[in-house]
Amino acid sequence: MSDVRLMAHFERLHVDSADPWGCDTRWYEARKRALTLALLPRERYHHGFEPGCSVGALSAELAQRCDIFTGWDASASAVASARKRLGHLDHVRFERRELPTTLPVAAFDLIVFSEIGYYLDEAALATTVRALRCALRPTGDFIACHWRHPLADGYRSGDAVHQRLHEHLGLTAKSSLVEPDFRIELWSGEASGSVPAGESR
Question: Per residue in 117-164, pLDDT tens?
């Protein structure tokens, strides 16, 4: 997100409201989180990463399945809210970072790219997705979730975001859930997402 106006817009949203998208109050948001989590093939991950974590509603549930969890957001107010929610957990950290001005250097076995791809222009989205691919471990999982309807403050629809992900990730798409309002897709690296031999039927 290199658009200064968008950054100011998101900061205002989080200053004006502790929960600008109703993540803690709307059934739509709770159900979408549950479906996102259900598509993850592994019960636990070593290091999970969520760029665009906002106030940490999804982060709170992801953190329960990660040994280490890192969340980024471009809004300082959003990061403060996320830290207030989960700051008591030693394995969780939140940082104010702007994509693609800052790109991750750590290695993650889970990356959650949720509700953020619309807000990156074409060059920024391509740069970000390729950097995230490089930051994903060879057997890692990459999951994305986006709203499918037009956004007044975005560059493209959620469907267009996922098309770009297919173009730039270079990973195998393992599962997909497409509903009228949103789509969730999972890409996995080599040998990721299979049932361990000891758990097979």
Answer: 999 999 999 999 999 999 999 999 999 999 999 888 889 999 999 999
What is the rounded CA–CA span in Å between residue 35 and residue 85?
Answer: 22
Nearest to 118 by CA among 81, 86, 82, 150: 150
Q: Quick one: tokens of 134? A: 């490089």
Q: What would the two tokens of residue 120 be?
A: 């990156």
Kindly report the pTM of this predicted structure.
0.89
* Distance from C-alpha of 3 to C-alpha of 12, rounded to nearest angstrom: 14
CB 49 within 8 A of CB 104: yes
**Rounded-to-integer distance, Cα 76 and Cα 177, Å:** 32
3-state helix, strand and coil shares in percent for the chain, rounded to the nearest 5: 40, 25, 35
